[in-house]
Amino acid sequence: MASVIEVKDLVRSFGDVEAVRGVDLTIEEGEIYGFLGPNGAGKSTVVKMLTTLLTPTSGSAKVFGLDVVDDADQIRLRIGAALQDASLDDKQSGREILTMQGELYGLTKAEINQRIDELSTLIDFEAIDRWIREYSGGMKRRLDLAASLIHNPDLLFLDEPTTGLDPTSRARVWDEVRALNSELGTTIFLTTQYLEEADELADRVGIINKGTIVGEGTPEHLKRAVGADVIQVRLGDQGSESGNDVDRVIDEVKRLEGVDHVDRGPHGLLISVTNGAGAVSPVAVALNGVGADVRELTLRTPTLDDVFLELTGDRMEVTS
Hints:
By secondary structure, the protein is of the alpha/beta class. The chain contains 11 helices and 14 strands. The two termini are 36 Å apart.
């Protein structure tokens, strides 16, 4: 497959602050690429450089083989972008926004009307002729997404498209993203702070933290790299008086065969093991042997949050 995006040692600084620090990326045609990271990680800065809205401080970035600095105008004709802040005029209607966007890309009136009909799953048709100021936040986000799709772009950038949406609106956006990719073959670059969103939608995930990509792969590959299974142990109030000398508990569990590593969470322990079914009983016996105050012990498969913890030493903090 042809590479749609090629990024090498991309850097962007704002004064003394280096927001993006040497990012390398290759995204193939037809992929949904999930760019996962917390607020302030550098996701939006990378997107703004790839969509030609920001000039890189150093490094190189090509979209469809075109340089984001030298060939910006050509790139803009082939991409769509729905960024975090929807740029919608409150004094226009939804139809006027879509019509204007289509005209900017040279579509005829008939083509614009056809595209509006085709995007009906995203747009609330009862509201399409109402002023934007009357729209809810979810309606504005979906209209902004529809506007980015009016010209049938080959590559679509979605920068945290479902942040702040209710579950129903989020599901509608997810369905549209899947349909764009599976039915039209649109390549999608999706930034998100939602672990579930990256897991559900992305063919591959790049995890960015503090301006650097710390991990990349399919969601399944990333999760399995952490360990086959995770035993989650919720402890009572931590401290030796309640039987939870946590350092001693961790040392005891680490000695067990099949335990890959143990992480201390806010309410207890996360124990990565090779064989969860076979490890539950020995872990329970070990915890009992050191007098740990165990409130809950559950076995589950790894999540992308476990991957983020493994790669960064911290958990994702998501804000709605």
